[in-house]
Amino acid sequence: MSESVDLAEMIEYCMGLPEVEEVTPFGPDALVYKVAGKMFAVTDPGRHPVSMNLKCDPDWALELRDAHDAVEPGWHMNKRHWNTVVLDGSLEVALLQRMIEHSYELVVQGLKKADRERVLAKWRK
Predict the structure, then answer these.
(1) Which residues form a coiled coil (predicted)?
(2) Which residues of the chain carry a pLDDT beneath 70?
């Protein structure tokens, strides 16, 4: 097991990406992270084990699930396109950050051209 990862660290990482906002459209328990109004991450800090749902390319999602017990089909999400990542200390921080960035990038690529170009210009600096 690697060093335990705190949910607050992953939230801080999400919030450090350009134009990210934290909202609670599903009630006060679910923290949703959006870029240009589109969700790329969600977590319930009161849920145990502590986890985060992240969007993922379907092929990579399957690879991650096969390779890591802490990566599961997305809880309450489209299981083809979302993973639930359990923050139990078994995943390297670099991999968690890569999964967050991947989720963010998938959503950014689906934005309207003007929004996508604006966000990418800030992110790629």
Answers:
(1) none
(2) 1-4, 125
